[in-house]
Amino acid sequence: MRICRFCRGEQHERARYGVIEGETVFPLREDEPFAALDVDRSQGMPLSEVRLLAPCQPSKIIGVGRNYRDHALELGHDVPSEPLIFLKPPSAVIGPHEAIRLPALSERVDYEGELVVVIGRRAHHIGEDESALDYVLGYTCGNDVTARDLQRRDVQFTRAKGFDTFAPLGPVIVTDLDPHDVTIETRVNGQVRQRARTSQLVFSVETLLRYISQVMTLLPGDVIYTGTPAGVGPLNPGDIVDVDIEGIGVLSNPVI
Ligand code: MG
Questions:
Q1: pLDDT below 50 — which residues of the chain?
Q2: Are residues 45 and 86 in the same domain?
Q3: Taking the alpha carbons of 5, 15, 212, 75 in that order, is the dihedral positive or negative?
Q4: Number of structural domains in the chain
Q5: Residue 121 CA to ligand 1 centre (angstroms)
Q6: How many whole angstroms from 66 Cα to the centroid of ligand 1?
Q7: Residue 30: which CATH number?
Q8: Is 241 in contact with 235 (CB distance < 8 Å)?
Q9: What is the Å distance from ligand 1's center to 49 Cα?
Q10: Domain that holds residue 18
């Protein structure tokens, strides 16, 4: 199933969750898609008449650094012996086609195309005997936008990865995706800059879920950016950056 958040043309209409089937959006009867998906099939509307928003509203965004070997090497690092996690603030989230704003404080802002895990139910200390993927609602595309110069200057990642608009998410949450071996591609102005398969992740989605849930309780709608492949590079005003994941779709954002 393909879950979205959307609003219709009028600016003040509230955002709703829905599912997309073909070119039609059906709203959910509940305010959230986490407990059950109660689709209102009497209220279908053309996909072309709605605006898709970021597909969830996370209470926290967990990022994973250096989780593809070639990317760790291109930045001059070894692969970590355990997952390297950090947080991005929820205020950084934007949806499809919203603009990534380059901050004046940075001279080098990079794209990082990533597979994003969306949590479906509360996860605390996931056990080795449990199926970690049972806590997942689905998967979407993300861009872990990073001010590379500030990341190098600061010890913490907070500033480099925390600017408003630095967490594009979308376009939809796909619930029946097998995350273990799909193609991920990032394009800038149509030119391929990153291309890999999620089978190259150093730490798998299950490992990340177990590891992170030992530290913090994951709540429905929280997201995990699973790391970026090799090929990161700068964004400039006027660019269009696309993150394209097989089985999900394309997250496209302009840069201003
Ligand atoms: Mg990243």
A1: none
A2: no
A3: positive
A4: 2
A5: 24
A6: 7
A7: 2.30.30
A8: yes
A9: 33
A10: 2-53
